[in-house]
Amino acid sequence: MQRYSALSIFHRGLSGHESWRPQWRRAAPKAAYDAVIVGGGGHGLGTAYYLASVHGLTNIAVLEKGWVGGGNTGRNTTIIRSNYLFDESAALYNHALKLWEDLSQVLNYNVMYSARGVMMLAHNVHDVQVAKRHIHANRCNGVDNEWLTPEQAKEFCPPLNISDNIRYPVLGAALQRRGGTARHDAVAWGYARAADALGVDIIENCEVTGFRKDAHGAIEAVETSRGLITTRKVGVVAAGNTSAVMRLADVRLPLESFPLQALVSEPVKPAFPCVVMSNTIHAYISQSDKGELVIGAGTDAYTSYTQRGGLHINTHTLDAICELFPMFRRMQMLRNWGGIVDVTPDRSPIIAKTPVKGLYVNCGWGTGGFKATPGSAHVFAHTIANDEPHPINAPFNIERFRDGFLIDEAAAAAVAH
Ligand code: FAD
Ligand code: PYC
Q1: What's the predicted TM-score (pTM) here?
Q2: Are residues 242 and 289 in the same domain?
Q3: 10 located within any domain
Q4: 71 and 51, same structural domain?
Q5: Residue 30 lies inside a defined structural domain of this protein
Q6: Whether 163 and 277 share a structural domain
Q7: Does the CB atom of residue 371 touch ligand 1 within 6 A?
Q8: Which residue has the higher pLDDT, 80 or 297?
Q9: Cβ of residue 374 lying under 6 Å from some atom of ligand 1
Q10: CA–CA distance from 7 to each of 2, 12, 13, 289, 304 (Å)?
């Protein structure tokens, strides 16, 4: 099994592009488009790509208030898996996982997807029961997941400490072998370059500041920091900021925004073969192709729109990492950062039409939307193009919070929040 994907330099070679970070053709927006996507993260750029490649809509633009991939897409710890509990989620995340498998070929851009396995640790009886319930549910849905004893977990991940004299001994683990990682910013650039090649305009430094509606309440234009743009269809994919953007159209959503932090160590030779997550002790870890240990924490306890969080969260996470992997105790940390994640009451996303005609929203991915990027973008493009949800995202509507058809994935989210 290939545990490590190509080196960064290979990424440059495979892209067949002179510049490491591609340049987009258009720097300023046109006055009118058939559709506009708000947010130049992986989900927004992917949506534009599928609108153009699958639905033939090419007179469209992605408006990004900062730079492409500068939001959560470029800030996450890149864990990809589909081991969610409910049938609806299994369909959604497995759809994404299948698209990951040949995404580099489809985009002709190496997104460095590496199916090195995601192992989720159990530290108490409750964890064991929850993990086994997920394993059984996953298998019913054709999602691979298996139970490992502590010894098998250590065989899969040799640095793991399975002694029973630690605060939270490892009682076993759920392993999804098809899970893994990808290079996050390559996903944004890959989709952007492929969309750009199909004629999509990607406009950076362009913030959406308002919406205009016609006499029937349907979208007719977006106001931006770079002028008014006429359009009848707008897809908002502005993770973390969704509530603020949707409020501009008088749409209120059940979302809370929290900081979520991650950090990387100094680079070292390949030492860590897979991804390990522990919700109970608030830590997850993998090793990037550059050699850095990529480590993440739970969300901060307070809501905020700042892309930073409290230091104590990181120290708590590093305590956990040092206990689980004592060989990393003397590693130095290189840098840390935060993103803002928007969280729904059931920890599942909203990918849906809204009460405003012509306005669509894709949000609420909380701590876990990177893994869904291709699948989310694919079904959101379908929703915008057809003004109807794809069967896969139909359950992820806004009405479920009124009607009670919640898809409660708090446990499968696997990150404390
Ligand atoms: P983003 O990449 O955030 O894109 C949204 C864009 O909208 C931003 O670029 C923003 O600038 C833009 N925008 C906002 N408002 C406006 C406006 N008014 N006008 C124009 N543009 C606007 N998920 C996983 O599956 N696995 C993980 O391991 C994982 N780890 C994570 C670790 C951290 C520290 C964080 C913060 C998140 C993590 N996630 C993870 C979650 C994942 O990163 C997100 O769910 C996902 O990247 C969301 O992608 P997106 O394209 O929707 O959002
Ligand atoms: O959803 O797998 C996940 C995840 C890992 C770290 C943050 N989110």
Answers
A1: 0.95
A2: no
A3: yes
A4: yes
A5: yes
A6: yes
A7: yes
A8: 80
A9: no
A10: 13, 9, 10, 6, 36
Indicate whether residue 63 lines ligand 1 (CB < 6 A). yes
Distance 30 CA to ligand 1 centre (A): 26
CA of 307 to the centre of ligand 1 (A): 11
Residues 191 and 250 occupy one common structural domain: yes
Q: CB of 82 closer than 6 A to ligand 2? A: no
Residue 188 maps to a domain = yes
**Domain containing 281 — which CATH number?**
3.30.9.10
Q: What is the residue with the minimal CA distance to atom 2 of ligand 2?
A: 79
Instruction: Please report which ligand is nearest the Cα atom of 373.
Output: 1
- Under a CB-based contact definition with an 8 Å cutoff, are residues 185 and 67 in contact? no
Amino acid 68: pLDDT: 95
Name the nearest CA neighbour of 36 among 57, 52, 60. 60
Q: What is the token pair recorded at 167?
A: 């605060």
What value does the mean pLDDT take over residues 317-340? Answer: 94
Name the closest-CA residue to atom 5, ligand 1: 238
Task: Check pLDDT > 80 for residue 1.
Answer: no
pLDDT in tens, 68-124: 999 999 999 999 999 999 999 999 999 999 999 999 999 999 999 999 999 999 999
* Domain limit, last residue, from 317, 343, 369: 343
For the residues 363-377, what does the mean pLDDT come to?
97
**CA dist list (Å): 308 to 75, 260, 261, 288, 398:** 11, 8, 7, 22, 29
Is 268 in the same domain as 331?
yes
Residue 14 has a pLDDT of 37
Phi-psi region at 101: left, alpha or beta (left = phi > 0; alpha = psi -120 to 50): alpha
Question: Which of 76, 260, 275 is the pocket-test mutation for ligand 2 (most atoms within 8 Å of CB)?
Answer: 76
Domain carrying residue 294: 114-180+256-343
Q: The CATH number of the domain where 233 resides is what?
A: 3.50.50.60
Confidence of residue 150 (pLDDT cuts 50, 70, 90): very high
Residue by residue, DSSP assigns 347-383 as S--EEEE-SSTTEEEEE-BTT--GGGHHHHHHHHHHH
Shared domain for 278 and 168, answered yes or no, is yes
Nearest ligand atom owner, CA of 84? 2
Q: Tell me if 120 CB under 6 Å of ligand 2.
A: no
One domain for residues 160 and 273: yes
Average the pLDDT over 263-280 and give the result. Answer: 96
Q: What's the token pair of residue 61? A: 């633009």
pLDDT at 12 over 60: no
Average pLDDT over residues 323-336: 95
Tokens of 244: 């603020």
Q: For ligand 1, atom 33, which residue shows the shortest CA distance?
A: 76
pLDDT range class, residue 312, cuts 50, 70, 90: confident
